[in-house]
Amino acid sequence: MRPEMLFPLFRSIGSLKGVGPKIAPLIEKVAGERVRDLAFLLPVGVIDRRYQPKIIEAEPGRLATIRVRVTGHQPSHNRRAPYKVMTADATGELALVFFHSTRPYLEKLLPPGEERLVSGMVEEYRGLLQITHPDHIVSVEDITDLPLVEPVYPLTAGLTTKTLRKAVDQAVEQLPDLPEWLNGPLQARHGWPGWLEALKAVHAPETPEALEPSTSARRRLAYDELLANQLALVLVRAKQKRRPGPVIPAGALAAKAIELLPFQLTGSQRHALAEIGGDLASGQRMQRLLQGDVGSGKTVVALLAMLEAVDAGGQAALMAPTEILVRQHAETIAPIALQLGLKTVVLTGRDKGKTRDRILEDIANGFAPLILGTHALVQEAVQFKNLMLAVVDEQHRFGVDQRMVLSDKAKAGGCHTLVMTATPIPRTLMLTAYGDLDWSRLTEKPAGRQPIDTRVVPANRLSDVVEGLGRTLQNGGKAYWVCPLVEESETSDLAAAEERFTALHAQFGDKVGLIHGRMRAADKEAAMTAFADGDIRLLVATTVIEVGVNVPDATIMIIEHAERFGLAQLHQLRGRVGRGAAASTCVLLYHPPLGATAKARLETLRRTEDGFEIAEQDLKLRGAGEVLGTRQSGLPDFKLADLESHADLLAIARDDARMIVETDPDLASDRGQALRTLLYLFEQDAAVRYATVG
User: Fold this and answer.
1) Which runs of consecutive H residues, i.e. helices, occur in 490-520?
2) pTM
C-alpha cells in the first residue's frame, strides 16, 4: 500500500487552490493529473528581470525592468492600430504598446501621473523605445509582487504563465521530506543534494545554465527515476528467475526443419538459437527478447524454438498484434509444420461460432501443438493442454501484463517466454523498456538480399517520380506510396492518402489501391491480399503498413513528405521493400527548405540500412520520447531523466538495482523501506509486490 506520506502528492490537480474545473484540464494537458506530476514538471526557460536600467540605458532586444511615470494615453481610433501609453523617467521616454485592449482597463492599470514598474522586451520603433504588452506592471508599493527571476514552464492555449506558476509553487510546497534511498557513498561521490532539496532547486533556477541536465540537482532526480525503473525491472526479473520452467532439451524436430528451409541460417540466427536453447534447457523460465531488424529472420528463429517445445511434448503459442501479421507468420510456419506432421491453428477475434469452438477444442486437447493468434489468445476461454513456450511478436504493441497473462496459461510446470520486436532500439532504451529480459540480436539479413537504393528527392520532381513509377508498373512491378504524417491523427493521414489515391488512380486506373487505419479489418486484409496477388500493383497507404506487411515482390517505396516522419518510422516503412531477391528502391520525397534535423535524418537513411545505427542516431536527433514514434505501451515515460544526457546514470542505476535485490530481496532494511517509497513515488506499485521471496 502506498505510504501515507505520499498521499498529498497523489491528490488531483483540482485539489490545489485556484485550480478550478476550467483550469485543471489545461494543467493536466501539460503536466498530468496529480500534484506529483506538477512537481515533476521541469522548467524550460528562465525569465531574468534583474536588468533594471534607466530608459536611456535600456538596450533594444533585452528584457528590462524599468521604473517609469505615466505621462499620457494615446488611444487608437483604428481597431488595427495599437493603444499607446506614454511613460518617462528623468532620462527619456518609453512607449508601452497594447493591441486589443480597452481604455478603462489601461487607465486603471496605468493611471496618468503615477509611477509603475514595467517589465518586458525593449524594442526600438521609429527612434522611440517601446515595450509591447509588458509581461508585468506593478505599483512601486507592490514591488515584492514582481518576481525578478522566474522559471518558464510549457504552456497550452488558455493557460497563462502566472496561473501555472502558482499551481507549481503549491505542488512544491506540499512535497514531503522523504527518507533517503540513495547509497550514501554514491551520493557523496557525485555531490548530489537530498531529494527534496534537488526538486526545489530545479524549480528555482537563477540562470539558464541551471536548467541544464548536467546540474547536480537534475542528475540526482534523473538517477532517482532511473533507479526506480531499474529496481522495478530487476525485481520482476528476480521473481521470474525464481520460478522453475520446463526443461526442454534440443530435439530432432528443429534439426529436421532447418533441413527443410530453402536458405541457410545466418550467423546471428544460429547464435540466437544457441542462447534460446540454453535458456530452454536450464530449468528456469526463459524471459528473452529477440530483437531483429526488418527482414532479419525472427519468425524462423521463433518457429525453431517452438518446435523444441513441441518435441518435448508441449505446445507453443505465438501472439501478434494484428490479424495481418498473424496470417503472415502462418504463411511461414504452417507449411514447414505440415511437412513435419504437425497441426497449426490460427485464432483471431474474427473466429466465431463453431469455427472458434473447434479451434479452442484443438488447443485444449493438445491436437494443435502450434497456435498462432492475436490478443484473442489471452481470453479466458483459451485453455492449453500443455503450454511450454509463449512467443510475443511486436512486444511494444502489448504491455508486460498481456505477456504475463499468456505465459500464466501454462500448467504447473511453467512456461518459457520469447518476445520479439522488429523495432531497432538503442541500448539505453533496451535497458529501460526491457530490462527484465535477457536479449538476443539478429544483426544480419538472409543471403541473397540486395541493398535498397535510397534516394532523397525534392517535391518539385514529383512528375519524374510518377513517370518512373509508371514504367515499373508497366513492367509488372509493385510499389507502395505512403502519404504524409500531418499530425498524430489518422483523419489527417487519411485525407492526404485519399487525395493522392485519386490523382494516381486517374493516371494508372484500377492498378491503384488504397489502405488506411479506418478501414475495417476485413477490408484491409482484402486490399493487402489484392496487392500480394497482383490485382493491385500500386498501394497508396497511410502508416498502417509500417508493421507486418510482407509482399516480397514489391520493389518500390515512395514516402511523401518524408521530412515529417521520424527516422525509426522511415526505416520501418523502407523495410516493406527489399524483402525478395530483386533490386529495390526507396524514394524520400521532401518539401524544401529542410531544417538541420530533417536534413540529418534523411541523410542517415540514405547512407545506411543498419537499423540499430539508425535508432542511435534517432535518439540523438529527437530524444528518447520520440524515438519509437507514437506512444507505445511497453516504453517508460520519463519525466525527470533524459536518456541521452543521463545514459551514464542508467548503467549505474542498473548495477545499483542488481546489488539491492541480491543483498536485500525483500527490501526489508532501512534503505529497502526507503526504496519501497521510491517505487511508490514513481508508480512502480506492482514491483513492490515482487520484493518478497517465493
Assistant:
1) 490-508
2) 0.68
